[in-house]
Amino acid sequence: MLPSDRSAAPQPAPPDAEGSAGASWWRRKLGEWFGIDLRSLAIFRIALGLIVCFDLCDRLRDFEAMYAETGIMPLQLARDWWPSPAQWSIFFLSSSDTFTLGVFLAGIVLSLLMIVGCCTRLGTVGCWVVMVSSSYRFPLVDMGGEALVRYLLFWSMFLPLGRCWSFDAWRRPTIDPRPVANVLTFCLMMQVCIMYFTAAYWKGRTKAWRQGMGLIHALWMDVFTRPLGDWILAHPRVAKVLNYAALAQEGCGVLFAFSPFYTKPLRLLTAIAFFAFHISIELTMSVSWFSYASLVAWVVFLPDITYENRFWRLPVAPERKPVVVVPRTRWGLAGMTALSVFYLFSLATTVILILALFLPQVDKNMPQIVRVQGDLCALPQGWMMFSAPPKLNIWFAAEARLRNGEVLDLLSGKPFTNQKPADLCTYYENFRWRQIFILLPDRKARYPEQVARVLAQRWNDRHAEEEQVVSLKFYHMQESSDPSKKGDFDRKLLATLQLEKRPDNEIINLQELLGEGF
């Protein structure tokens, strides 16, 4: 063999080179799976900040009814609601309405800082504190959407949300354009996965969902259903197909975002599929902030090909800004290590708390530190929404006799009737009032009399002297979810209020007098 031939012959790769190539593949793949593009983080920051801002402004609309000391839940009642001292709220520091209002206004300012990316970390941490505090101060209106917003804020507090498209980035002389991939991004993505896997598990345990009837039962709840949901309800075959499609997407769809092959294209398609999924939920049902928060959660899954492709290019930073990859300092590495340990423990706590919901042995043997960690960080979550078929379709009515002799329903402002409202989804003033009423029949609810008093007071504050409420009867109506019994309902008197005959505005709660049943 000629020397030239010998030199051209293929040489076997040394064993360590093969191992290095395998390790390199795994590092690259882990970066693709759990890395978040800076532009996705920027959109995530802006959208999440907008939700927080709108949520806090919306809460202020009902400030006197829900957060003032003279409202439905005074401060002491809110403190007594929570069994653990680790369940905290800034609002617990003072019962002053001025202090409470100041916290809300501070939260709005912090959300604006988060939106524009100025002092981003301060804004994000502050928004999380205010959102947790407001939920613990008035837990009656805490739903899946508000909970998801809190979780997204918690898992993203120490991510570089302000590194791109922000005032913080504009003030920096250089920028590191690399995607962020670390334990914190892993935990944020796992929170999204946990939500879908848990929801699919609870639905899969229910016979109705396995038989294709779960969506029909969910849409039967008129208080949530929009007109498109009514159309689906009128077409059982369509509802059955969508029932199984929802189960499949919640149970398996998120796995495509972590495909070992064609990761970026499949991740983009998966995100688009979940965008469509949650838009369809919002079009068919009124579920507070849940659909919007879920859309925001999927933004972090958008890969770089979303912003750089053959059709357009959205740069991380202006072209004139120099790109520098800054190595971590020793203190920076120590801080990231501590954060990683804390967040991994928090993620493990979240999983354990969810397992405790359906495994009694886990709940019985749970270490106290796990419970305390869950309460301090507001981590408990269940995601059981619409998993169990409702047995009753419920609504409420407030029969008020005015000084001029009229008898009105204070909830609708129309003459009182015993008939179910035509559109329960828009019957209540907003979704927070709807949630308050939904919880009223619960045996743990201790506030029907406060609700009656606040309803009368709100009406009187907005109307002339001759239209003031003289007396009020607060009813709970319920209709069987059995389609064959539609139209038949029972009525229960929860509380009555006499304003003119009782100068001290004393409220008689008839729930105990009449008993808990119908």
Describe the structure.
This is HTTM-like domain-containing protein. It is a multi-pass membrane protein. Its main location: membrane. The chain is an alpha+beta fold and 518 residues long. It has 2 domains: 329 residues, no CATH class; 123 residues, no CATH class. It is built from 22 helices and 8 strands. Strands 5-4-3-6-7-8 form a 6-stranded antiparallel beta sheet. Helix 3 runs antiparallel to helix 16. The radius of gyration is 27 Å and the shape is globular. The N and C termini lie far apart (100 Å). The N terminus and C terminus are likely disordered.
What's the layout of helices and strands?
Blueprint: H1 3-8, H2 15-34, E1 35-36, H3 38-61, H4 63-66, H5 75-81, H6 97-116, H7 120-137, H8 144-156, H9 167-171, E2 180-181, H10 183-204, H11 207-210, H12 214-219, H13 227-233, H14 236-252, H15 263-284, H16 290-299, H17 330-358, H18 360-364, H19 368-376, E3 392-402, E4 407-409, E5 414-415, H20 431-439, H21 448-462, E6 469-480, E7 489-498, E8 507-509, H22 511-514
